[in-house]
Amino acid sequence: MARADANVRLSGGGALIYNSASPPRFSFMPTTVELTINLAAIRHNLAQVRRLCPDSRIMAMIKADGYGHGLLATARAVAAADGLAVARLEEALQLRHAGIRQRVLLLGTWLDQHDLEVCCRQAFDVVIHDEASAQLVLARNDWPGSLRIWLKLDSGMHRLGLPPDSFQRVREQLRRHPQVSELVEMMHFSCADEPASDETGRQLRCFNAVHDPALPASVANSAALIRLPECRTGWVRPGIMLYGDNPLPGTDVDLRPAMRFTARVLAVREIGPGEAVGYGVSWRAGRASRIATVGVGYGDGYPRHAVSGTPVRIGGGRAPLAGRVSMDSITVDVTDIPPVAVGDMAELWGEQQPVAEVADYAGTISYELLTGVNARVPRRVIDRS
After folding, report:
1. Active-site residue, selected from the candidate residues 63, 152, 243, 367
2. What is the CA radius of gyration of the chain?
């Protein structure tokens, strides 16, 4: 077996199949499920940010493996941004080890003195969001390099950030430190994607009350930079919109989905009225129905809590999920769409089926679906306008 394995090579779109009958036999078949990432779409979406905020610098959010699109691929797709932001030191180091010299911001995380030394040597920008982290910086004047600090205000979200009085005091301490070469003031909105909420205005007033206009500000996430021109400040921090999901449906922003999640039809069967499909017999046919079993499930990252009726693009039409999501498959009622055959490809989300709509049916948000596709799903990266 070892010698046979050494001579096996996987090739485009194929999956290795091993038959245990003697002698060993290897063959190839098309993948059951696939994730396609289009880098051209990400670049297009970045250009839309630039169009909205021509006077701002762009800190592109590529944390969580580029929102599930691949950290390094995404970083290279947004090379025209002014900086890249990640949530973990390991992510930042991965960028440097890949030869990416772009400005990198390490968002709020736990740092010790050793980590800060690494950040100095690697020229990472660092978010300071509490007194302890600020004191780590202030305690030394012999850091192995300069420090670019983003000082975070808790303007009401109460997750990370300094309260207003501490924020102002720490700001003055940091700006006097000889090795702090740049200071940016930042905050984060909790309800920017909810136009009816007055929380965004309240948070912005809180920030403006303590912001030093001599320093660059950064307040806008995707929703804020789309909806609120006053938030297009020195730095903007687009995230979900870079990947083609508009957090404010109906607004005039030309975004293109960068992820397409697809799976093949494994079986098609006819069932009679009253017959049930799937675990727990939670769905029963109200008429004679045609059911397609598609080879994707929660083991791949399709949301288990997607309810019957969740739309799937398949066979040239739109068909509803029928029954519970299984680990490796879903069942879809294809009675009312053009004939579907084994081997046909279904789109779970992507160019034709918005990920946000699937998220709504599953009682979650598009961020979770994009970042939650399992590692067992083969990835294909394209660059196609």
Report:
1. 63
2. 25
| pLDDT the model gives residue 109 | 85
pLDDT band (50, 70, 90) for residue 2:
very low
Q: Provide CATH 2.40.37.10 ranges for the chain.
A: 259-382
pTM reported for the whole predicted model: 0.91
The CATH number of the domain covering residues in 39-243 = 3.20.20.10
Residues of the chain with CATH 3.20.20.10: 39-243
- The top-level CATH class assigned to 259-382 is mainly beta
- Per residue in 311-333, pLDDT (tens digit) is 999 988 999 999 999 999 999 99
Give the HSE-up count for residue 88: Cα atoms under 13 Å, Cβ half-sphere: 8
Q: 């579907």: which residue's tokens?
A: 340
Residue 279 known to be catalytic? yes
Helix (H/G/I), strand (E/B), else coil: 376 = coil
Q: Residue 152 catalytic? A: no
Catalytic residue, chosen from 243, 279, 298, 367, is: 279
pLDDT, tens digit, 9 for 90 and up, residues 180-192: 999 999 999 999 9
